[in-house]
Design goal:
584 residues, alpha+beta, 6-stranded mixed β-sheet, 14 helices, 31 strands
């Protein structure tokens, strides 16, 4: 029986081991929780990934919107995120730490400046660097979880985006010429450029009323300086004579015939071989990287033909003294000598720029020396005193005027564009006195002034009594004046002017009124107060009689050079708010 029983037990065991139906049930019971957990984690991870991508898209959009509204970045970010369904948006301020929570989205918004040309990508955005042209938005939030909240740690979604917008404007300083003195213009251009420039008032009016396309001008100039197939910056990195510049301007399409012929005449008559760095005349900013013939979208780049010509001539002067053989035509003035020196603006600032916020343009520094011999008229002033000769030794220095692009905004679109230029007229210093002519054209040194002979007087039997004196005054603005241009004014290329606030009276009259006089007999200073009491009134009256026409002469001369007494003229010829784009 025993062997049979053993066989039966073996058979039953084999049957049990062969029947696996119950094993699947056990395995399912054991593995189901693990599978459900893995499925829960997978679903939540996929949800978190999708939510992160959506958050990144929202942050990208918020950064683009903020860069387009650089003065209201917090509002722009909160509105954009809230309108797109982001819950409980809270802006974290500088120095704050706010932890994200369920139903609360924490964002930090940082304005700054982005430079696309930076070699190190991570350093192209400089936080809080002004003037702002970019915004970085960082977002943190707790994502929604559906099944795995108890299985994995609480995650935090973190996303970041940087957007930049590059508004640009084309503007220049010192581009007005209210009236034309043909003889003075011819004499001044001849002195600046060499040769014998002889144009009519009509020729100059043609240049004053003409605008040229700066990009077409640079393209025409490329052949003059042997640059082919390059960019505008390649041309502006070269040097050219004023003759080459005038030739290129004459070849700009659309220029009137009068202006064209005048420029051709100047080009043919100019004998100066001085080559000026073109970058000191024009700065195209980012637009310089365009290939010759291309144009920046939505931005006009025009310049006044006369202004560009005079700015070029000033740069070619090289701070040399120009002696003008000019008949003043002022009644009462017997003879005069007139000298001019034009210095280059500091830091090689251009006359015209296409730039972003912070771009600066400047005029040149200018010095003028006018020594006029004045007819004494009724020379007998009483008491045996007679005026033998009277002179007006007038020195004038105008520091550079400055215009800085401070703001470009489009509150409701391109038609609402506004451009703000902080403008500072050049400091004007006037002197009656004597100065060393050796330093007249040296702008690295200040001129020094001393008493000089204003009049020679005879007193009874004394034929040569010298009246010496000096005077000085200054006009200056300590703070800039902001000039704002709207779209209509930009399209019309309107000129606006910033004025020195304390300019209240005639230049020459101001100096004469401050004139301090002493008398010398045979070179010895004596107490001649009573004598001066007789001499001073007719002497001052005589000097004042020529004050107004002398001022007119100086104002005209400075106007030709793009500089004005106590004023700075600015013109914006093109502007665009640009388009906000993601950069990081």
């Amino acid at each position: 029986m025993l062997p049979h029983a053993c066989k039966e037990i073996g058979r039953l065991a084999r049957l049990m081991l062969g029947d696996r139906k119950a094993n699947f049930a056990v395995m399912t019971a054991l593995m189901a929780p693990v599978g459900l957990a893995l499925a829960a984690v997978a679903i939540d991870e996929a949800s978190i990934y999708t939510e992160r991508r959506e958050a990144q898209a929202m942050v990208d959009l918020a950064a683009i919107t903020a860069a387009s509204n650089i003065t209201k970045i917090d509002t722009a970010v909160v509105t954009t995120l809230t309108d797109n369904g982001m819950p409980g948006v809270v802006v974290q301020g500088s120095g704050q730490t706010i932890a994200p929570a369920v139903g609360k989205t924490v964002v930090s918004v940082t304005p700054g400046r982005y430079a696309a040309s930076g070699a190190n990508v991570s350093q192209r955005f400089q936080a809080n660097l002004t003037p702002y042209n970019a915004v970085r938005v960082t977002l943190k939030k707790i994502p929604a979880r559906y099944f795995a909240s108890s299985l994995i740690p609480t995650p935090v979604i973190g996303t970041e985006a940087t957007a930049s917008m590059t508004p640009q404007a084309t503007f220049s300083v010192g581009s007005r010429l209210a009236s034309v003195n043909g003889g003075m213009l011819n004499a001044l251009l001849s002195g600046l450029l060499g040769g014998n420039i002889s144009l009519s008032v009509m020729d100059y009016n043609g240049l004053i009323s003409a605008d040229v396309s700066v990009l077409s001008f640079i393209s025409a100039l490329a052949t003059q300086v042997n640059v082919t197939g390059g960019t505008y910056t390649d041309v502006l990195a070269s040097k050219a004579t004023v003759g080459q510049i005038a030739t290129a301007m004459a070849n700009v399409p659309g220029l009137g015939n009068t202006a064209k012929v005048a420029l051709q005449t100047i080009a043919s008559k100019s004998t100066s071989t001085v080559k000026i760095p073109l970058s000191h005349l024009i700065d195209l900013g980012p637009g310089g990287s365009l290939a010759l013939g291309q144009k920046p979208a939505g931005l006009g780049v025009d310049a006044n033909a006369m202004g560009m010509l005079m700015a070029s001539a000033g740069l070619a002067n090289g701070s040399k003294q120009i002696d003008l053989g000019l008949s003043t035509g002022i009644p009462g003035v017997l003879s005069s000598t007139l000298a001019v020196a034009v210095g280059e603006p500091p830091q090689s600032s251009p006359w015209l720029a296409v730039g972003q916020l912070g771009t600066i343009v400047r005029t040149a520094q200018t010095r003028i020396k006018l020594v006029a011999k004045i007819g004494a008229g009724n020379s007998n002033v009483g008491g045996g005193i007679s005026l033998v000769s009277v002179s007006l030794p007038l020195h004038l220095e105008v520091a550079y005027a400055e215009a800085k692009l401070t703001d470009i905004s489009c509150p409701t679109g391109p038609d609402s564009i506004k451009v703000s230029i902080a403008t500072r007229p050049g400091i004007v210093e006037g002197h009656l006195g004597d100065s060393s002519s050796a330093g007249f054209a040296d702008f690295t040194n200040e001129e020094t002034f001393s008493d000089t002979e204003i009049a020679r007087v005879s007193l009874l039997i004394i034929p040569a009594l010298s009246v010496v004196g000096s005077a000085a005054f200054e006009m200056a603005n300590n703070t800039p004046t902001t000039l704002t241009f709207n779209k209509t004014e930009i399209d019309a290329k309107t000129i606006k002017t910033a004025y020195t606030q304390n300019l209240t009276q005639s230049l020459t009259t101001s100096l004469v009124s401050k004139l301090s006089l002493t008398a010398n007999l045979l070179g010895l200073p004596l107490d001649l107060n009573t004598f001066l009491g007789f001499v001073r009134p007719p002497l001052v009256a005589l000097l004042n009689s020529v004050a107004a026409p002398v001022d007119t002469l100086l104002t005209s001369l400075l106007g030709i050079l793009g500089v004005r007494l106590g004023e700075a003229d600015v013109r914006v010829t093109g502007a665009t708010c640009g388009r906000s784009v993601l950069v990081q």
